[in-house]
Amino acid sequence: MPPEACQIQNCLLSNNYQQDKCEAVIANLYKCCAQFYRRDGDDARTDGKLKDLNIPDASK
């Protein structure tokens, strides 16, 4: 699991699952995904075991 996903889980747990209190860490996940697509292209996939992982496209 990407570190950003762990940060989201931790934030939600510590804030009684109130998403509005975790918007910053959620935004970080989208920034990470956007960087991935800029670097590797719109059809990019992760390699190895996570090859079929669907990463959200923040530009859409």
Give an account of the 3D structure.
The chain has a domain at 3-41. The chain is 50% helix and 0% strand. It is built from two helices and no strands. Helix 1 runs antiparallel to helix 2 (23-40). The longest helix has 18 residues, at 23-40.
Outline of this structure?
By secondary structure, this protein is mainly α. Helix content is 50%, strand content 0%. The chain contains 2 helices and no strands.
Query: Got a strand count?
Result: 0
Helix content: 40-55%
Q: Please provide the ordered H/E string of secondary-structure elements.
A: HH
Query: What low-confidence regions span 5 or more consecutive residues with pLDDT below 50?
Result: none
The end-to-end distance, rounded to whole angstroms, is 23 Å
Q: Biggest β-sheet, characterized?
A: none
Content of β-strand: under 5%
Subcellular location: Mitochondrion intermembrane space
Main location: mitochondrion
Keywords: Disulfide bond, Mitochondrion
Family: Belongs to the CMC4 family.
Question: Which descriptors would you attach to this protein?
Answer:
mainly alpha, CMC4, 2 helices, single chain, 0% strand
